[in-house]
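Much of what follows relies on a compact textual record of a protein's fold. An example makes this concrete, so a full record is given next.
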Amino acid sequence: MTLEQRIAEIIRPAIEDLGFELVRVLVSGQRNKKLQVMAEPKDGSAMNVDHCAVIS
């Protein structure tokens, strides 16, 4: 299992409980790792800054 898959497994339930669908998890960088989490609302509405605040 990759690091991204492990992270997705851990965070997916919380994101779904908030009404979102996890789209992708990406870890990038060599020395300075960055984590990118992509999600979208389950109701099909457009993602916005307020949604990002809820998830974070």
Remarks:
- The mean pLDDT is 97.
